[in-house]
Amino acid sequence: MIFAGQSNALGFGMDGSTLPGEYGKPDPLTLIWSSRAQAFEVMQPGVNTGTANTPAAWAAEVAFARAFRQANPKEPLYIVKSAKGSTGLAADPQRIDWSPSSTGEMFDATAAEVAAARAAAGVGAVDAVFIVQGEQDATQAAWADAYGRNVTDWFAAIRTRWMADPEGPIFFARVGEPLAHAQAVSRAQALADAADPHAASVETTHFLLQADSLHYSAAAHLEMGQAFGRLFVAERSRRGARAAGSGWPGAGAPAAGSRAPNLRTRVAGTAPLKVAESLRFPGFSPHPQGSWAPAAATAWQAGGMRVCTRAEGPGGARKSACAPSLKVGGGDRKDREARGRPTRPRGHEV
What we know:
By secondary structure, the protein is an alpha/beta fold. It contains seven helices and twelve strands.
């Protein structure tokens, strides 16, 4: 697994003192790559989860590892973390960035570390990439306007150079609302999610932030990791089901004629889009065994667009919800109205 991005991927302001006790216990099967030692080490959250300059920093990888372990009790987990604050995606001749065209910078450095880590672990491919990036690109109009094209190219390059998998799963956070051009970047991220069948994004506007109104709080980092964990487990289940040619794996196969739940998001007036963590179904969520289970509801609006989510489950059952009007859109008339999303003061960034 690769965790990459800016300061909110690194865990700015986080150390062992901000880590809840239950997350601090090392797991001998969870290993993190040390660029300094050029070797994997047992991950010790709040000790070696940062970078060479800030080794105690921690972020989404901590809660993700816990979620992964709950789903995979005996499977080794290898993590490579590459993060640096204020690193944009647009090529910037003045400072280091993530552009694949910027030779020797963040993209190439990460590719080199991933190659070394893969060789050390003896694995042929990367299972998933998790990204928290975009704030820097939201500081200038030209960078924000180019973000959609840049992120599409970035994902393609990641799958080629880092993952060796043209369909490699990429999960990423969408930026919040405080910077001058954050809305343009967030919209580009949402559209990238919609257009890419092997990517999914996480809505973050409700995250609690530090006093600087820029960086994730400890609670937000944990929530991000949990969201990444849900997305990864669901994607692995989906791929396993597709490979098996039947319903979702696990005890209790779906009844004949039913199908595994499939979440889709759509923007009103456009073709159906695809799965994302951005909206949760109001009161229901897909269950691996083909049933419905309770879930909280959140909603998101970008650029004034009406965003809806639809879930399909056993026997073709449908349930839907929309934002910002929060009226049920399509599907069964017995669908419930979505509850409103959590809010926070404007001027906050994720």
